[in-house]
Amino acid sequence: MTKNKTPQVTKANRKRYEIPNLRKAFEILEMLSEERGGITFPEMLEKIECNKTSLFRILMTLENMGYLRKNAETDAFSVSRKILSLAYPALCDANIIEESLDVVRNLRDEIGETTMLGVLLDNECVMVEQEYGLSSFNFIGKLGMKSPLHASAPGKALLSALPKPDLEKLLPKINFEKCAKNTVENVQSLKEQIEKFSKLNYAYDASEAVDGVNCVASPIFDAHSYPVAVIWITGPAHRILESEFDALGKKVLASAAKISERLGYIA
């Protein structure tokens, strides 16, 4: 191997260069990210192929580094907020968040409902920033919260803005899980919605991701006319009325356009 040069890796020899315990560490992080209540050491032994000593060492290393935390009462491990320091740069350019903060806040002030900013990750929309609504009761998510593409306004806003080749690659990967009473259940129905929303430049959902919760969203574009983020409002269905979706959509669209312009997008 030439000095200071990356080894030639092919599909045939890729496994040869893997570090097994490093792979296990990321498998653990992925597993814990899906468990809100955390997982105990014995439960993890049953869920993941790893010997007891190695698993314990991996958990201790991640906990000592601050990426895991352990509940003193239940002994369950869960992912800490420190993981966001790694995730943010990968999810989106920090510039997107910086250029969006005041717009997200102003939209929240104008409408009064919780306003969120998200990005596309695999087959889900991941929330990276939010401003809490002004009412005493609001829908609030945790940073890193995932919204299904087929069932949420932000997800459908992103899908409707994707170039056709990217959309066609992504659609077969979507799992049409029933999230709420009005969730779209097949790809044909989703395509019909995408076609409609692509003309409007905003999207909405009425109790499709969460029963009793409505959302209105609009995609954000970069200088290359690619949808790099999405902004949306979310709140109880009795406050975000279906009859007001179009009026609210235009307001969310105006906010998205302002951020897009800052990112160099030319309509």
Automatic annotation (TrEMBL):
The keyword ATP-binding does not apply. Residues 19-81 form the HTH iclR-type domain. Signal peptide: none annotated. Residues 82-265 form the IclR-ED domain. Transmembrane segments: none annotated. Keywords: DNA-binding, Transcription, Transcription regulation. It holds the Pfam family IclR_C. Gene3D superfamilies: 3.30.450.40, Winged helix-like DNA-binding domain superfamily/Winged helix DNA-binding domain (1.10.10.10). PANTHER family: HELIX-TURN-HELIX TRANSCRIPTIONAL REGULATOR, ICLR FAMILY, HTH-TYPE TRANSCRIPTIONAL REGULATOR KDGR-RELATED. This is IclR family transcriptional regulator. It comes from Intestinicryptomonas porci. The lineage of its organism: Bacteria, Pseudomonadati, Verrucomicrobiota, Opitutia, Opitutales.
